[in-house]
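Protein modeling request. Please complete all fields; requests missing the sequence field cannot be processed.
Requester role: graduate student
Desired output: 3D structure, token encoding
Chains: 1
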Amino acid sequence: MEDKIDIEDVFFRYGKSNIHAFKAGTGKEILVAFHGYGERSSMFLKVAKKLPERFTLYAVDLPIHGGSTWRGKKILGKDFIWILREILKKEDAVRCSLMGFSLGGRIALYLTEKVPHLVNHVYLIAPDGIVSSGWYRSIQKIPDWMKRGAFKLLVNKSTGKLAKRLYKRGWLNHHNFRFSEVHFSTREKRRRLLIYWMALGRFAPEWKKTREIIKQNKIKMKIFLGTHDEVIPTTAGRILTDGLDNAEVVFISANHRQMHRVFFKRVEQLL
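Delivered output (271 residues):
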């Protein structure tokens, strides 16, 4: 049975926005964790409960998620660097470790590339940003006005209904159907999705460069990938760890949506 732990809500004022995180644990290793798109910081509660003496955990609500507000029109990579530095400042610390699930993994990799001198360990759970299609990469390189137009064409109430028909006919996998069902459903959710659609190219890790930086700075990395993940292919582990002695890939029998649940259930053994 898990012991109860003290959880502290922490807010960082950033311009007109507020970034919320919860702090828990008393460990020497400061762990800053970023959840996936559409999730909340509370997904990391099991890390805090099962490993309270190993980590001092800061689980961050991404902008426009959970308890974090966002008044800006854009999200930039430097925004996450600011969040990381503020947490370190609050702890009077020089370095920390990073954990990220899905989109949070992309953010953790970006931070590792940009501010490696602040990072000790990196724990990636089904991380986004390593492998993507040529079409996706091309979309991210086009001007913002074209990306906005493409988004409005692809993401609206009508395409949400179309996704349902395609799913029933077996032409759309369950993950993509559920994503469209949840995130296309209201104007506010579509607005949040548009902001992240526009932002992804601004904090996309360059994995070849990141791999070399990890090697040079001797950062320890552990990647957890689902053997049935329909979003993040298992090849992502080989691509990122090729030639690295301080990196390890662990395969988990799960699809993308199951990954964090299975991981947190076994977190004591996996970490």
